[in-house]
Design goal:
By secondary structure, the chain is an alpha/beta fold. The protein has one domain: Alpha-Beta Barrel (TIM Barrel), CATH 3.20.20. The strands form two sheets. Strands 1, 2, 3, 6, 7 and 8 form a six-stranded parallel β-sheet that branches. Strands 4-5 form a two-stranded parallel ribbon. It starts with 13 loop residues before the first helix and ends with a helix. The structure holds zinc ion. The site of zinc ion (ZN) has 5 residues, from loops.
Length: about 270
């Protein structure tokens, strides 16, 4: 593996290589036998459907390497990953909760939010956590962007977050986990590693913290990467962000099992 943060060579996955071969084969078939066009078109459409399906499945590795759990060496621990912040109300309370449990977390911040709340990003780092890249604007059509737009979106967040946090991100998480085949070459060029999760609590949509915690703890095991949110956080009937109570339950369960928390940087890259 190249040193963390260094650009690396992109090699297509079998699915992407296969799709490219189908396209080349379709063109060759049309050149020698134009009447074969329905077969050629069918092959091309099928390969596009396969690529799209792979991109809609956040935990798949069909479009490129994807960290969905910690590597073997870090398997006595778990990673808490916290997306969509920083948020001026929720993030400081999440930081206090993490301190109370002596836990460390990985914050996938949105570049524009980091620029609006730089002091909160600095507090995240000062309290022993790490800040990674969750795109500059968290656009809903992120997975429909072409290579140039993807690169600009991710590179802008690298610059914004790197300048505020004092270190350029080493991991990227796609908005909503949705991707397309152009993403992995862009990540390789920027020296970023894609990270998704083992399980998530849907804490942006569920107003019941116990339900969120149950989803995160169902089948919970060492090596898990858990996903919660400090931005876009759902609120319970009393107006409290559900992530606070849910994360508290998860960290208690982890402590009961003797599982310590670790940042993705420490677990995957060893520093
Ligand atoms: Zn997000």
């Amino acid at each position: 593996m190249n040193p963390p943060g260094e650009p690396r060579r992109w090699t297509p996955t079998p699915l992407i290589g296969g799709a490219a071969a189908v396209h080349a084969g379709a063109l060759a078939a049309l050149a020698v036998a134009p009447a074969a066009w329905p077969w050629a078109a069918g092959g091309v459409i099928a390969s596009h459907l396969a690529l799209t399906a792979a991109g809609l499945w956040p935990r798949s590795s069909l479009l490129g390497h994807n960290w969905t759990a910690l590597p073997e060496a870090a398997r006595a621990r778990i990673a808490i990953t916290i997306d969509d912040g920083p948020d001026p109300d929720v993030t400081p309370r999440v930081l206090d909760l993490l301190d109370a449990h002596q836990a460390r977390a990985t914050f996938f911040c949105i570049g524009e939010r980091a620029r609006e709340h730089p002091r909160i990003v600095e507090a995240i780092v000062a309290r022993g956590h790490t800040v990674e890249n969750h795109s500059q604007r968290h656009r809903h059509h992120f997975s429909l962007m072409g290579p140039g737009a993807l690169r600009r979106e991710i590179d802008a967040a690298q610059a914004t977050i790197g300048a505020i946090a004092g270190a350029r991100p080493l991991f990227f998480r796609a908005p909503a986990g949705l991707r397309n085949p152009f993403l992995e070459p862009v990540l390789c060029g920027l020296g970023l590693h894609l990270a998704s999760w083992t399980r998530r609590g849907f804490d942006t949509r569920t107003s019941d913290a116990s339900l969120v915690a149950r989803r995160l703890l169902k089948g919970f095991a060492a090596g898990d990467i858990l996903l919660v949110h400090d931005g876009h956080a759902a609120r319970d009937a009393h107006g409290a962000p559900v992530v606070l109570a849910a994360l508290d339950m998860v960290l208690r369960a982890a402590a009961n099992r003797g599982l310590e928390t670790v940042t993705l940087r420490d677990a995957v890259l060893g520093y």
